[in-house]
Amino acid sequence: MTGPLVPDLLDDAARRWPGAAAISDGSRRLSYAELENLSRIAAGRLHRSGVRPGDRVVLRLPGDVNFAALLFGALRLGAAVVPMNPALNPYLLEWIVEDAAPALLVTGTDDVPVMRGRSRPPVLCLPPGEQLSGAAVADADLPRPASSGVALLMYTSGSTAMPRAVVSRHDQIRFVVAAIAARLRYTAEDVVFNRSPVSFDYGLYQLFLCARAGARLETRPGLAEVRLLSEIRATGTTVLPIVPTVAEILLRLSARDTRPTSVRMITNTGAALTGGLAAGLRKTFPRAAVVPMYGMTECKRITVAEPDEDLDHPGTVGRPLDGTEVTVVDDEGQPVPAGTVGEIWVRGPHVMAGYWDRAALAARPFAGASPADPVLRTGDYGHVDRDGRLYFAGRRDDIFKRKGVRTSVQEIEAAALDVPGVRAAAVRRPNDDGEFVVWVAGQVEPEQVLAGVLARLERAKMPDRCVVLPELPTTPNGKVDKAGLAGRQSVR
Known about the structure:
Layout: H1 6-16, E1 21-24, E2 29-31, H2 32-48, E3 56-60, H3 65-76, E4 80-84, H4 90-100, E5 104-107, E6 123-125, E7 150-156, E8 164-169, H5 170-184, E9 191-194, H6 201-213, E10 216-219, H7 228-234, E11 239-242, H8 244-254, E12 265-268, H9 275-284, E13 289-294, E14 303-304, H10 309-312, E15 316-320, E16 325-329, E17 342-347, H11 359-362, E18 375-384, E19 390-395, E20 399-402, E21 405-408, H12 409-417, E22 422-427, E23 437-442, H13 446-456, E24 465-469
Parallel strand pairs: 1-10, 3-4, 3-5, 5-6, 9-10, 11-12, 12-13, 23-24
Antiparallel strand pairs: 1-2, 7-8, 13-14, 14-15, 15-19, 16-17, 17-18, 18-19, 20-21, 22-23
Helix pairs in contact: 1-2, 1-6, 2-3, 5-6, 8-9
């Protein structure tokens, strides 16, 4: 089936805005015409390295100019791209390579570990700063991939403990990019700053959204925290996609640097943005609207709020994207009335094609629909109001009963974050022995946090213990690493 492809986004941008800046990684800046040409050079380089339609290509690179060119180049060939965080540990790197069975592994360093399982794939080392070279490939030299072909394998962790790859087709990506773009309304005058790794779909899709709008992407995955606010200011950033841990960093930095920025919009996903963090961002970036969103790798984005909609409707993550249906159901899969908490189910053209090479696992998230019209059982809980706005309550494992009272970890985290002196907070379900712990980062005593939570919530929701740390551990995607909290003790 022919239809729009992901690399068409870049080709269209090169026709409409050939001289406009497309991407800058702090070392190199390319226009859309230059990036399109470099992607064709990348396609030639990959083809000479043995990549063919239907193959997988692992890109173990930061989200720099070379990554962007190789991504679009591989997609031109009809290959599927597997973005990989260069900071991924050797054990998980080997797991993903074994699982994806790529025709090529492109890396920025030569420290690829020895593969113990299947034979090591061919490796193309492209050190930072080295420019792709060679003959560019013309469309006439390549068979056009089908829009139903696989474009991305996005590895995400889950209840299976080991990463599994969400399969995304060209047509699914094009649908959801258009739907998100209709809500966020990036323009050709925008400068979008991305610090998230491109192995996180929130970071990766900034490249697609910018190409659709003709905006400039300033990509800085792994940028040192201390430089974050100064880079946002120096680049003239107007759109700032963040996760809550980055919001915390920005608020700390802004206490020492109050100079104005050009930021007009802040988007958030990955975890809920509490009222205190949102208020702090509005104070730090007074000209910026805050846009809460909700999504999953299995369908990218589900809802997007209107700018500052959370001011009138606290806690909302917005309404479903156009073409997306959200239903909240009970334990029997029956829809519940507005205002009632239940599991969030999603239907739409962007719902994933399945998990890579996981036939048994792929069936688990779906319910009551044909493979051509899947319904995603998210495992997340929330409710919708009478106007269709969604409110996220937490993951299935984050909601539990304590002393007979229904409780969510998000509710307790929000209460802890409201305590003066607390910068970050995390809660896990009670452990096997029933102990219930809240971990916080900040200049505060454990007793103050516990008293503050008790003043804000019912006694049944009160944690047994508070652990104060200098910082909470985070995952490569910038989310709080709750698995890494176990056993952590207060640091004085």
